[in-house]
Amino acid sequence: MSYFSEKHGSEASSPAARPPHWTLAPKMSSWTIAPRRVGLFVLIGSLLYSLVAFTLASRPHQRPAYLTERLPYNSTLVPHAAFQPPEALPHRYADMVDTFASYKYRNTCNISSLDLHAPFAPLCSDRQSMITAMSSGGRIGHDAPYMPRGCDMRWFSTEEICEILSRFEKVIILGDSMMRHVVGSINVLIRKDLGYGAVTDWNFSPEERQDCFCNYQFNVKACSVQGIFKTADVVKNDPESLACPASTFDVIIEMMIRFPIPSDELDRLRTLLPPKKPDRPYAFVLGHGLWNDLDLQATLDWLDQLLDVSKQHAPWLASSVTKSSTSATRPKDRAAAVAAAAAAAAKRERKHDSGFWPRLFLTPNAAGKEKPDEWIVSQGNKALMVFEEAVGMEVRRRGVEHLGTWNMSIQSNKFDGV
């Protein structure tokens, strides 16, 4: 089975070539490893953890009881074990069961959440430790369940996902097809549908229902046009398929794949941002790299332009951005300068935690063995690793958090190598 790559143009296998009673690949990972991307649900977990940590960081007294109450569960530490069992807390129950058990087409698509993530203790204590753990994590064996390094992530139930999304006025996702697959995966989760959750199945022909089923719904060539680009379309056309209350969330993607960014794409971004500050925060998830051949400066220019346009059209965002403080009076001695710098850093950190503009940048995943030879130098694993490290340092200077995906994907199968 092969897939079409937007970047490299490999051809997809023809649906007509399948036997009349075609079956899916025996391993669930063939569904989760979508074209050009691996570990989408792991990325969704990190995104959701970032969103919930952002909203709770400044309001610790409002933490729900399920985060602190303990379960009558034996989580005795195992001496010398590499990984300890998950904590006996109610919210970790979803980490230890197949949360896909009640999803549509669960058995046909043959995928379990436990095949994607293996839970352990301790749970990461905050957003930053979770992002670091996920960027550094990996798998114990090829296509094994993913595990962060040092501390664990949450695997949220659908009900928790709905509650997290409801804390935001809008979640805006900007980038290339990797980000489109992220949006598709969110729709799979909030629709509880492994077969057609990422696509507009409400208007499918019989042929499309076969061509875009289970893992095939992420086929870039055959099904990208049928992908769900905004949850508002689901609310309008198939509200009964949603597990979340229809009026409580809004997730949308704008495809912005390369720099320079066309003016019409920037105009579409402007239409998403109200000039007046809303009651709930806006969250941004961004991804870029391959379409500019991992050119660091092009990626930074892409990011800077999007941030600038957002602040210009929605000035209320600027008050949330970490800024360097300047003073008309200079400290008279070195000790005073150090103290002033420390106070300014602490102030910036507080503003970052309690700001109104959470932003997360995702860098591309590892390359696979099927990656075309012509791209091995400019987009091979060495180039990807250097790019991820450099982007991480630069985006953090801009007040944007960074999630690396190279480690989580290096031991995963990638059908087209991208």
Give the integer mean of the pLDDT values: 81
The biggest sheet, with number of strands, parallel, antiparallel or mixed sense and barrel status, is: 5 strands, parallel
Q: Helix/strand-derived class?
A: alpha/beta
Tell me the fraction of residues in β-strands, as a range.
Answer: 5-15%
The number of distinct helices, counting runs of at least 4 residues, comes to 16
**Spatial shape:** globular
Give the tally of β-strands: 7
Helix content: 25-40%
Radius of gyration, in Å, reads 22 Å
Structural description of this entry:
This protein has helices at 29-32, 40-57, 93-96, 106-109, 127-136, 158-165, 177-191, 206-211, 220-223, 231-237, 263-272, 296-313, 334-354, 376-379, 381-397, 406-409; strands spanning 138-139, 146-147, 170-175, 251-255, 282-287, 359-362, 401-403. Helix 2 runs antiparallel to helix 5 (127-136), helix 2 (40-57) crosses helix 7 (177-191) and helix 12 runs parallel beside helix 15. The chain is α/β, with parallel strands linked by helices and 418 residues long. The strands form two sheets. The protein has a five-stranded parallel sheet with strand order 4-3-5-6-7, sandwiched between helices. Strands 1-2 form a two-stranded antiparallel ribbon.
